[in-house]
Amino acid sequence: MSSFRLYRIIKTFLQFGLDELIPSHMLPWYAKLIRFTLFWLRNKHQDKPSALRLRLAIESLGPVFVKFGQMLSTRRDLLPEDFANELALLQDQVPAFDGELAKAIILKAIGEETFNQHFSDFDIQPLASASIAQVHTATLLQDGQSFEVVLKVLRPNITETILADVKVMSLFAGVVAKFLPDGKRLRPKEVVNEYRKTIIDELDLNREAANATLLKHNFSQGNASDSVLYVPKVYSDFSHENVMVMERIYGIGVGEIATLQGLGVDMKLLAERGVEVFFTQVFRDSFFHADMHPGNVFVDATHPADPTWIAIDCGICGTLNREDKRYLAENFVAFFNRDYRKVAELHVDSGWVPSETSVDEFEFAIRTVCEPIFNKPLSEISFGQVLVSLFNTARRFNMEVQPQLVLLQKTLLYIEGLGRQLYPQLDLWQTAKPFLENWVKQQMGVKAVFKKIKENLPFWNEKLPEMPDLLYDYLKTTQVTRQKQMHLFTELKAQQHKNHKIIIGTLLFSTLCICAAIIFH
């Protein structure tokens, strides 16, 4: 880690007065001494609130910290509301790096001969630039056809930069955990580790290509409902760890509300389809795009009355297992019906909170938090905020951090935010409730039993001819085991009888010795 980089980070934190977030009486003498030796680094933003100073400091430290701040803004279960709101304003606007350098990286990954054979019209000027990578447009020549594509290329030396900055974050996380009054509850070390895993995954474009391919497959199965989301095609033959080639899309940014309205797009349908996209990914496919912020979501408004969502940048995706899906769906349905007892029982049954947790106390805590929310009209209730409130309450009962649920919460907050931005009157509850109730019914009804039997039929069909042999082997093994047990029991009984004789003999001998000693005396 560069000493200059470390100094710059410390300088930034001190000049924005972030050291003041830790009460003076909690700092050890050596920390105060170090702070005193850096006397020339004073707080230059004393007139600003602490949350604003934190955001400005993160922005000045560059893209790696900005991305961390964006991730942290979704952890409303850990942060005060004012800090979460400020961090949510972080914008990842990064200057592009040299286009010639980008081309050199692409040529090295793909191969100059392959590049010249299959690509033309490469634009040195990047189409877009982000913290980890930037994209350039080109034309792909393949099988006698030409396709408009974009080439995504990682920034040079970005891995080293990120790992160095994450080390610094870990250092500060240790300080926060030790000295901040609420440091242990905030679990800063776990948050940094979570961020490290997430951002390292984003550095492998092969992984992103695989995610995009799977997501596209899930929404391209010919069902009418699958037209709600379009994922650009990835050309895997030309993709590498640091370069990815994908179809170029022409869409309207989901945040360009005026443009969408000017084209006559059905905003209500678009918002409802956003909700449908989320629940379909989670409950039908168990695989969801976990980074659907406005920069990664576009709208195909070719048919304004039938708009389609377009998702790019699939570097961060989440999964849920069968049990998590079932418990989550039942939790949502119980919330819709305000059955807090059921919510408490589900959390205990799922193992998300310790088994010794009092269901009565947990139910009362959930009711206390959620009842005021339900006093509002359904269209004014934030689904994401209800989920955050639930996790906050559960954390008081020692709920362990569930990484898959953190990604889910983040995605839900994004989707709900986009939906309400497009159509403020969106009633997320009414949109989602029929979907969830239908899913629970499908998973737990008679049809679900027959479906599971049907799915397992090939397995049992394969194993059925082996059943007589397996049964014979089982009975034979059982008989041999029983004979061994009887033999061992007999040996044990004989050994006990022998030990009994030895004990009696020893007692008699000891008694005779004691008597002889008394007579002799």
From TrEMBL:
Listed GO biological process terms: regulation of ubiquinone biosynthetic process; ubiquinone biosynthetic process
Family under the similarity heading: Belongs to the ABC1 family. UbiB subfamily. Belongs to the protein kinase superfamily. ADCK protein kinase family.
Coiled coil: none
Transmembrane residue ranges: 502-520
Alphabetized CDD domains for the sequence: UbiB
Subcellular localization: Cell membrane
Protein function: Is probably a protein kinase regulator of UbiI activity which is involved in aerobic coenzyme Q (ubiquinone) biosynthesis.
Main location: membrane
Active-site annotation: 291 (proton acceptor)
Taxonomic superkingdom: Bacteria
Enzyme class: transferase
Enzyme Commission designation: 2.7.-.-
Membrane topology: Single-pass membrane protein
Annotated ranges, domain ABC1 atypical kinase-like: 90-347
The protein's name in its UniProt record: Probable protein kinase UbiB
CC terms in the record's Gene Ontology section: plasma membrane
NCBIfam families membership: PRK04750.1, UbiB
Pathway stated in the Swiss-Prot or TrEMBL entry: Cofactor biosynthesis; ubiquinone biosynthesis [regulation]
GO MF annotation, one: ATP binding
Lineage: Bacteria, Pseudomonadati, Pseudomonadota, Gammaproteobacteria, Alteromonadales
Keywords from the UniProt entry: ATP-binding, Cell inner membrane, Cell membrane, Kinase, Membrane, Nucleotide-binding, Transferase, Transmembrane, Transmembrane helix, Ubiquinone, Ubiquinone biosynthesis
Organism of derivation: Colwellia hornerae
Residues engaged in binding ATP: 127-135, 152
